[in-house]
């Protein structure tokens, strides 16, 4: 092929349809062709003029910057600019300028079809994310040293605070530009692969998701960069995370077991308390696996409660749950409510299991105590009636009846005060009974010699018959104070008791009441009240308590033995 003349347009530029072709010198003055068309008249008109005069004034600054950089590096210039290609209004066009020889340059321009550039520009302006296109700037060694903004949208200007950024370099806008930005954009430019990364900005505080993609493919120098401010989303995510942690802490600190389930009662999740109590792992409890820890007799009621839950809008049942180790069961109250979506449809059920074992035990004990109270009340009324009748039978007058009857009622009051200890799971013991009765008489001299108490502590008496036993002790003490050993200074009283364990029968308590140091009263009705006490000991105790008794009046006073079962 023959060499082309200096003022000719080389055919190597015609790589497709072109709207403008021209040659220019190193200063950018047209020497052949025209930036506004291919006609010879137009070419003659523009010869000697700067090609930049064909650029729309809005893009003139960018075009000048690009031309300056291309001239300094003797490299190609590629840009999307608005040009007046036919002498009329400026139109979006794709421009390419390349060096030709030592001093000349060749240029080619092609219109964007259907106003493609304007469409893209309008589209980019409608988005809320910052957007820009940049062109990397390299030194003679091919190292990235800067980048220039080719286009920006208004959202980018608001985010960055930069005004009139188009055509300017990053170092012009940010003199201390961090090196990392050059490295990141250089890596994307060389690889030709888009990347996504995050960057936090302190003033004003923002958190950006950044998407950068090459425009020209590997080795190209232009990138499109999108900046999305995700700080509001990050704040919402952080608050949601804090809320979830608070909820998790609340769930973990609750004594109840918390769980989630489907409408069919299949668990999808259980809190750690469930696993700690039952020993089941989360996987084992899912589905219907949790039912393995429920007492077999309660599983039918669980199924019935789930069958009614949808209609009632609530799941509720009392069940027994087996702890880890499998020994015994504890009662729990299981309750769940539906979680509904915006349309009112049930998405899942959230429930708890609350330990009510102690409450049920208290209720059962309360029922027992109520029955015991009713039983005791009937017994007490019977005892009071019997005491009143027996006292009246031996009294000589109303004046004689009242004090004796009052004393016996007080004795009953004392023993019922001791019986109230049953509310604390206790029983009346014989040492408490004897000390209460002698203490009420004012004759219990602890550590003295006048009254001696000798026997094991804590021998528990049967609650059902302790009132009769207490009345018998009361009559012995009353007679001792009024007529027997404790009526004078010389008398002595010894009460000794011991436990016996005969083979094949219950343990028995043997009590010895021994008065000494005084003459016995004459065997005449001159000592009121003794007949009732003796009748209690010799008749009532054997009948009610299966006791073996003996009552004697010796030369020095009363000797009485009472042998009763205590188990």
What does this entry look like structurally?
- The chain has 567 residues and is of the alpha+beta class.
- It has helices spanning 40-46, 60-73, 116-126, 154-160, 170-173, 179-191, 231-253, 272-278, 282-285, 299-312, 357-394, 398-419, 430-441, 466-482, 530-545, and strands spanning 20-24, 30-34, 77-83, 91-100, 104-111, 130-138, 144-152, 195-201, 206-214, 222-229, 257-261, 267-270, 315-321, 330-340, 346-355, 451-454, 492-500, 508-516, 548-553, 558-565.
- α11 (357-394) packs antiparallel against α12 (398-419), α12 (398-419) runs antiparallel to α13 and α14 packs antiparallel against α15 (530-545).
- Mean pLDDT is 80; it is low at 1-16 and 524-530.
Tally of DSSP β-strands: 20
Which whole number gives the mean pLDDT? 80
Overall, the morphology is rod-shaped
Query: Roughly how many Å apart are the termini?
Result: 132 Å
Q: Helices and strands: which structural class?
A: alpha+beta
Give start-end ranges of low-pLDDT stretches: 1-16, 524-530
Largest sheet: 5 strands, antiparallel
Provide a count of the helices.
Answer: 15
Give the DSSP E fraction (strand runs of 2 or more residues). 25-35%
Looking across the biggest beta sheet, what order are the strands in? 2-1-5-4-3
- From the alpha carbons, calculate the radius of gyration and give it in angstroms: 55 Å
Determine the fraction of residues in helical runs and give it as a percent range: 25-40%
């Amino acid at each position: 092929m023959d060499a082309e003349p200096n003022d000719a347009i080389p055919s190597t530029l015609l790589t497709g349809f072109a709207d403008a072709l021209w040659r220019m010198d190193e200063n950018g003055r047209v020497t052949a062709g025209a930036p506004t068309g291919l006609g010879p008249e137009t070419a003659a008109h523009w010869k000697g003029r700067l090609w930049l005069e064909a650029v729309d004034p809005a893009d003139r600054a960018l075009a000048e910057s690009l031309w300056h950089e291309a001239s300094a590096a003797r490299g190609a210039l590629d840009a999307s600019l608005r040009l007046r290609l036919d002498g009329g209004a400026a139109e979006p066009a794709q421009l390419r300028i390349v060096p030709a020889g030592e001093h000349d340059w060749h240029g080619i321009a092609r219109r964007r079809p259907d106003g493609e550039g304007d469409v893209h520009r309008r589209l980019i302006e409608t988005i809320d994310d910052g957007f820009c296109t940049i062109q990397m700037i390299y030194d003679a060694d091919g190292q990235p040293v800067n980048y220039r903004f080719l286009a920006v949208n208004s959202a980018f200007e608001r985010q960055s605070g930069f005004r009139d950024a188009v055509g300017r370099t990053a170092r012009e806008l940010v003199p201390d530009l961090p090196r990392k930005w050059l490295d990141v954009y250089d890596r994307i430019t060389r690889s030709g692969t888009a990347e996504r990364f995050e960057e936090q900005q302190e003033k004003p505080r923002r958190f950006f998701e950044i998407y950068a993609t090459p425009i020209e493919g590997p080795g190209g120098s232009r990138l499109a960069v999108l900046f999305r401010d995700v700080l509001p989303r990050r704040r919402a995510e952080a608050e949601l995370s804090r809320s979830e942690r608070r909820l998790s802490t609340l769930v973990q600190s609750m004594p109840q077991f918390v769980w989630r389930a489907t409408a069919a009662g299949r668990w999808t999740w259980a809190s750690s308390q469930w696993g700690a109590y039952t020993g089941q792992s989360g996987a084992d409890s899912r589905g219907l696996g949790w039912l393995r820890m429920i007492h077999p007799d309660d599983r039918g009621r669980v199924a019935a409660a789930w069958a009614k839950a949808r209609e009632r809008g609530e799941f509720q049942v009392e069940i027994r749950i087996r702890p880890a180790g499998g020994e015994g069961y504890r009662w729990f109250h299981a309750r769940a409510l539906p979680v509904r979506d915006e349309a009112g449809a049930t998405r899942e059920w959230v429930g708890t299991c609350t330990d009510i074992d102690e409450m049920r035990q208290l209720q059962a004990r309360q029922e027992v105590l109520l029955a015991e109270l009713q039983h005791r009340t009937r017994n007490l009324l019977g005892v009071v009636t019997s005491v009143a009748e027996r006292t009246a039978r031996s009294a000589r007058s109303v004046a004689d009846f009242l004090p004796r009857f009052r004393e016996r009622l007080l004795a009953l009051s004392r023993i019922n005060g001791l019986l109230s200890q049953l509310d604390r799971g206790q029983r009346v013991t014989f040492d408490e009974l004897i000390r209460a009765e002698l203490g009420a008489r004012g004759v219990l001299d602890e550590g003295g010699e006048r009254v001696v108490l000798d026997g094991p502590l804590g021998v528990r008496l049967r609650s059902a018959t302790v009132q009769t036993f207490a009345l018998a002790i009361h009559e012995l003490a009353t007679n001792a104070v009024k007529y027997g050993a404790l009526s004078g200074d010389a008398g002595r009283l010894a009460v000794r008791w011991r436990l016996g364990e005969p083979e094949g029968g219950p343990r028995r308590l043997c009590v010895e009441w021994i008065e000494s140091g005084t003459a016995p009263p004459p065997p005449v009705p001159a000592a009121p009240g003794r007949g009732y006490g003796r009748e209690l000991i010799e008749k009532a105790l054997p009948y009610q308590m299966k006791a073996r008794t003996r009552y004697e009046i010796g030369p020095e006073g009363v000797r009485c033995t009472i042998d009763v079962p205590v188990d």
